[in-house]
């Protein structure tokens, strides 16, 4: 951490469970991470690894019940928002933390104009009047690259394409100048060209506005192009965390290594088949007391079944700041794995 | 939109002509004749003259044509005359009831107020009760409120009105003496006391019908709310920091009401058409009772006219429902 500045968002030991008939599902298990101001943290993992649930837990957006945030602290600019009463939490949502969701086709309310949907948080959080909110909404639409913004202010979501709707979603999330923008797979539902456009837009906005961003995805290619730091999640836990270059150059966790191997290469000899990670992600029934990845891990040994490995530093820096991994197995030195 | 409405109205014309044909000829085919109401002591030649004066002896298509002419031309003229004191109709023969010899529309006009008061009130009440119940049931799905609401709605929907009506009469009229079981049409509301009497005599039929209608509408509201509460845009609204009241009563309700409004609009013709059974149970001489009475004495013009008016209203409110749909849902454009 540079000069010990306070992180914008500091999550410590977050635990979320879902109560189901089959038992308790430990969807988020002891997740800790910190987000510096202006930083872009990429969160990777396959479906069901707890990425989205973690972010939804932060702001109480999960339906409770069945969800229950059982432990942890979420410090936003030093204030614990996890235990705020609902009305105060609402003043954080949309105002200090903006959310962009996966599917822009369904994330906007079909019966209200996009302008109204952008102006809603402006009126609520910033107490703007109609005229003021309107001009700010136009500004926001221009900011996210919607041409002829004033004319489109009172268009309805169905009159926009998927990429345009995601731009509108971003405009809504940015409306109140949040400190943190959480983007939950914002490009997954879009085609590749539009994906690239949205990525460019976010990069540009980040430079312009300087907010911190959490970018959830299962696309490592996206992460490589945009993130400062990466957090790999598996089975509701953080299994590895490192600056983006370090992670790609020196992956420590068998899961991260396997993930990187699944990316098809465009150079060199073409492989006969794409690599896959055998097996299914686990359903975290009951409190985990062993490594969640052990069933699919090629380096599994006795310790993996006995205890759930804690996160340990790889590069000497404290856990959460430099490179850390949660694994009983120690990867061999870098030169040997360089072309694993 | 205007184009669409005009087009729909034009399409309604062949539809209504077809319906009028079906109604007229079906009713005409039905066994029995207006003559059966004439006492047997009347000599055959007189009987023949009566039939002739009713126009019953003419071929069926002539009677159909006459009926159509009177329905769409003569009677509207009389209507205009009555409203503006003109004399456009110039004494043209009106559509006459066989049994009472009163113009059919005048007869319906006498019966309509009772139907509108009682059944209209019941319908409005049903909507006002059902929508909040549906909203809350969905918002607190599987709660006690929802479970009880579901149970009551099931009863309201599945128990016929003649049973609920009689049950209410037994409990509130026979045992408790709270409300009268017979609706007095001649009562005119002039002061507080007569207003109270009017409310009292309306209570039981209104409850009977409102229970039935509210059951249906609340179920529609509930399922529509449930569907919308699970949508992604609800999460977006919450993520924007909107309060639960705004989320539910603005974002979700606005979407949920689209199908509900349609159902409500499509139900309105029944208010005019009368609730035949409920009117019988509580002796309300509204449209429903008029229809039953006319069927019993083979009063074909009354039966045909009431049936056809109901058909017109159904076609009309189908159009109204579609227009409302277009107004409520910006995704639907009629052009």
Low-confidence region ranges of chain A: 336-340
CATH superfamily caption of the largest domain in chain B = MetI-like
Biggest β-sheet strands, sense, barrel of chain A: 8 strands, mixed
Listing every helix as H and every strand as E from the N terminus to the C terminus, the arrangement of chain A reads EEEHEEHEHHHHHEHEHEEHHHEEH
Can you put this structure into words, describing what you see?
The complex is a heterodimer of chains A (340) and B (335). Chain A is of the alpha/beta class. Helix content of chain A is 33%, strand content 22%. Chain A contains 13 helices and twelve strands. An eight-stranded mixed beta sheet of chain A has the order 6-7-8-3-9-10-12-11, sandwiched between helices. In chain A, a hairpin with a 2-residue loop joins β1 (9-20) and β2. The longest helix of chain A is centred in the middle third of the chain and has 18 residues, at 192-209. Chain A is globular. Chain B has 335 residues and is an all-alpha fold. Chain B has two domains: 33-94, no CATH class; 105-328, MetI-like fold (Orthogonal Bundle), CATH 1.10.3720.10. Chain B has helices spanning 2-29, 44-54, 60-84, 104-139, 144-158, 161-175, 192-229, 232-239, 244-273, 276-281, 287-296, 300-328. The model of chain B has no long low-confidence stretch (mean pLDDT 86). The A-B interface holds A 59, 61, 86-87, 90-95, 98-99, 101, 103, 106-113, 120-121, 124-125, 156, 158, 169, 172-173 and B 231-233, 235-244, 246, 251, 254-255, 258, 328-331.
Short synopsis of the structure:
The complex is a heterodimer of chains A (340) and B (335). Chain A contains 13 helices and twelve strands.
List keywords for this structure.
heterodimer, A: 340 residues, alpha/beta, 8-stranded mixed beta sheet, 4-stranded antiparallel beta sheet, 13 helices, 12 strands, globular, disordered C terminus, B: 335 residues, mainly alpha, MetI-like fold, 2 domains
